[in-house]
């Protein structure tokens, strides 16, 4: 039970100009499930490892429960970590794996036994306690790794892409299990993933990182509804938002034959963008319209039928170049490949960003 | 490919098998044959049945050599592996995990090279060098340092010390190789395991005994067999360094020396072959037993 704070925490690898993590400021509440997400190399894992003590902090500090742990070794931080490859000790049984940390802390045998059994029951590992990791399936190993963290009863759980080695079905299943477990135990959790679906479904809040810089940290809903910049807008949501830079007019953004209306303050803010503005509209906030309703004609390249609905991928000639678009539609109006359809963004669901710095306006 | 398969395989097999048959198997067979004869290097070999082995049973030198081997067999692997494991640990993970990577102690790259030096020297050279190191007068490194050569320790001439002095050289010479062997083993342990151990609160000592050694067990087992076989040898050092080649008074006698002297000093080819046969079975039994006794679940990473 603890809060975690990154205060301008910076990590610069030897011989590199650009910090791997650049002045990260992040406050994580007691019992919160925070997800760090971003493309590979964005510094999310490094941030987690800085918190774990596996990575040096070059500048700034890290607090756990108001205690400065910046330069403490991993074992003095009262944290437990689940690794991507689980990092189970191959020569120990499941029981020994889970008990190892407690043994080193000189916990009494009875207490160790109680905690391990309890965790095993929680994770449905009872019958595997005497097995070695190699005799377990991927999902079971993952649960042992979780168990090893749980028995410690730490102040903070750290998870570094714990699901990426599981197959798709198991991943979805385990995803909800971890979320449920965290809610039940109420232990502050920092979770790293590159998968935005994982981030959106599991996190109380999600911190999006790029190039070592925190882009936005907010609830999944806020990230989806009001992305603070073009990167977050494009990263969150699947399929990704349609993002185009178009000319700015006095009424708003002029997109193909349409004018997407913007508020006066927005237009004022966008005016320093060299007469351009970047607009974004989600595939699910885009309609297919009839040929004479002023929509942008696109040629359909691919239709993904998802059962419940369908994603239509297509391209259109715009400003002399070929631009790609995605539209989500219900299955009844599903076009076929090669067909020309007309798309129209829903005006009140259009996001506007500054054309040069990419910030939301 | 299917048609060409057998000629291909046979083509590669034939030459090695022929060479192996001529120079290894045939030699073994001849030795076994000779051990049942009283061959003296010339003339016809007379079949004498098990006489050579019976004579061996009553040969005090043979038993002396076996006792010496027993000492080497216990201490050579034990001490060499212990030292090599500690060194390899220090070189690879003993420096802690500052900066995200498990590292060796300060200067580990330098030590890695230095530890391997003895392995590069020919054994005969090592023997000559240590013959000087052990020298009883003031010019010997140890005695010279101890008290300038007065009241020297007679490393090679004192029955109490001779075998241990040889053992020390064997260890000195072998450690470098096993440091490299164990380093390779430690390199194959995933970084995350060390990190998990660090988070679990393992100190360097617990890390060494509870994680590193169990994970290296297979390599240690192999090392034990190699060193055990080396303990049945030790011929080169004994031949070059010791007083009376195997002395004083048999204190450093080994089976290899006994064979050599029986052939080249006494022309007892048949008898020497019998010792060779015994040595062959001793080594074989040792290797099989070691692998058997130390067998554990193989650890997969």
Structure overview:
- The complex is a heterodimer of chains A (361) and B (301).
- With 361 residues, chain A is of the alpha+beta class.
- Helix content of chain A is 25%, strand content 33%.
- Chain A folds into two domains: 4-231, Rossmann fold (3-Layer(aba) Sandwich); 243-354, OB fold (Dihydrolipoamide Acetyltransferase, E2P), CATH 2.40.50.
- In chain A, the strands form five sheets. In chain A, strands 6-7-8-3-9-10 form a six-stranded mixed beta sheet, sandwiched between helices. A five-stranded antiparallel beta sheet of chain A has the order 15-19-16-17-18, with no helix packed on it. A four-stranded antiparallel beta sheet of chain A has the order 2-1-4-5, with helices on one face.
- In chain A, α2 packs parallel to α4 (138-150).
- Chain A starts with a strand and ends in a 7-residue tail after the last strand.
- By secondary structure, chain B is mostly helical.
- Chain B has a single domain, classed as MetI-like fold (Orthogonal Bundle).
- Chain B is globular, with a radius of gyration of 24 Å.
- Chain B starts with a helix and ends in an 8-residue tail after the last helix.
- Chains A and B meet through β6 and α2 of A and α8 and α9 of B.
């Amino acid at each position: 039970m603890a809060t975690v704070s990154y205060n301008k925490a910076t990590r610069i690898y030897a011989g590199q100009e650009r910090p791997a993590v650049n002045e990260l400021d992040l406050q994580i509440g007691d019992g919160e499930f925070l997800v760090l997400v971003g493309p590979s190399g964005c510094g999310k894992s490094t941030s987690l490892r800085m918190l774990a003590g596996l990575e040096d902090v070059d500048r700034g500090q890290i607090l756990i429960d108001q205690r400065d742990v910046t330069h403490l070794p991993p074992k003095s931080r009262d944290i437990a970590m689940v690794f991507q490859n689980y990092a189970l000790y191959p020569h120990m049984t499941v029981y020994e794996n889970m008990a190892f940390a407690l043994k080193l802390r000189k916990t009494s045998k009875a207490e160790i036994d109680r905690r391990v059994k309890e965790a095993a029951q929680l994770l449905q590992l009872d019958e595997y306690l005497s097995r070695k990791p190699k005799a377990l399936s991927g999902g079971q190993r993952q649960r042992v790794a979780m168990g090893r963290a749980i028995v410690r009863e730490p102040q903070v759980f750290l998870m570094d892409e714990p699901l990426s080695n599981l197959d798709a079905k198991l991943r979805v299943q385990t995803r909800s299990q971890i979320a449920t477990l965290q809610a039940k135990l109420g232990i502050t959790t920092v979770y790293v993933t590159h998968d935005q679906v994982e981030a959106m479904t599991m996190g109380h809040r999600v911190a999006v990182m790029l190039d070592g810089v925190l882009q936005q940290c907010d609830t999944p809903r806020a990230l989806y509804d009001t992305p603070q910049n073009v990167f977050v807008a494009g990263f969150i949501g699947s399929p990704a938002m349609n993002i185009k830079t178009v000319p700015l007019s006095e009424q708003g953004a002029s997109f193909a034959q349409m004018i997407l209306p913007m508020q006066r303050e927005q237009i004022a803010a966008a005016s320093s963008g060299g007469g351009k503005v970047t607009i974004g509209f989600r595939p699910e906030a885009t309609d297919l319209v009839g040929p004479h309703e002023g929509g942008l004609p696109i040629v359909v390249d691919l239709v993904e039928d998802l059962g419940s609905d369908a994603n239509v991928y297509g391209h259109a000639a715009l400003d002399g170049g070929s631009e790609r678009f995605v539209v989500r539609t219900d299955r009844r109006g599903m076009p076929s490949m090669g067909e020309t359809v007309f798309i129209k963004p829903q005006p009140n669901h259009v996001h506007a960003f500054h054309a040069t710095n990419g910030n939301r306006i | 490919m299917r048609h060409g398969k057998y000629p291909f395989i046979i083509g590669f097999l034939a030459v090695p098998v022929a060479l192996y048959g001529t120079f290894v198997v045939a030699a073994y067979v001849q030795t076994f044959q000779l051990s049942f004869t009283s061959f003296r290097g010339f003339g016809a070999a007379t079949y004498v049945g098990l006489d050579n082995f019976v004579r061996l049973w009553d040969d005090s030198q043979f038993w002396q050599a076996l006792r010496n081997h027993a000492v080497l067999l216990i201490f050579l692997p034990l001490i060499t592996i212990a030292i090599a494991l500690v060194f390899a640990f220090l070189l690879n993970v003993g420096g802690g995990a500052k900066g995200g990577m498990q590292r060796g102690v300060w200067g580990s790259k330098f030590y890695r090279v230095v530890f391997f030096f003895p392995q590069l020297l020919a054994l005969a050279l090592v023997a000559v060098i240590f013959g000087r190191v052990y020298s009883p007068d003031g010019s010997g490194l140890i005695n010279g340092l101890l008290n300038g050569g007065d009241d020297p320790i007679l490393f090679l001439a004192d029955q109490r010390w001779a075998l241990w002095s040889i053992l020390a050289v064997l260890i000195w010479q072998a450690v470098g190789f096993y440091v490299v062997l164990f380093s390779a083993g430690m390199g194959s342990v995933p970084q995350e395991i060390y990190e998990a151990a660090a988070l679990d609160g393992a100190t360097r000592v617990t890390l060494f005994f509870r994680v590193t050694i169990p994970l290296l067990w297979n390599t240690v087992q192999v090392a034990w067999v190699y060193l055990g076989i080396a303990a049945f040898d030790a011929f080169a050092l004994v031949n070059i360094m010791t007083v009376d080649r195997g002395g004083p008074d048999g204190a450093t006698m080994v089976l290899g020396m006994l064979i050599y002297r029986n052939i080249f000093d006494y022309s007892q080819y048949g008898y020497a072959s019998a010792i060779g046969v015994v040595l062959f079975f001793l080594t074989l039994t040792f290797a099989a037993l070691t692998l058997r006794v130390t067998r554990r679940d193989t650890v997969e990473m």
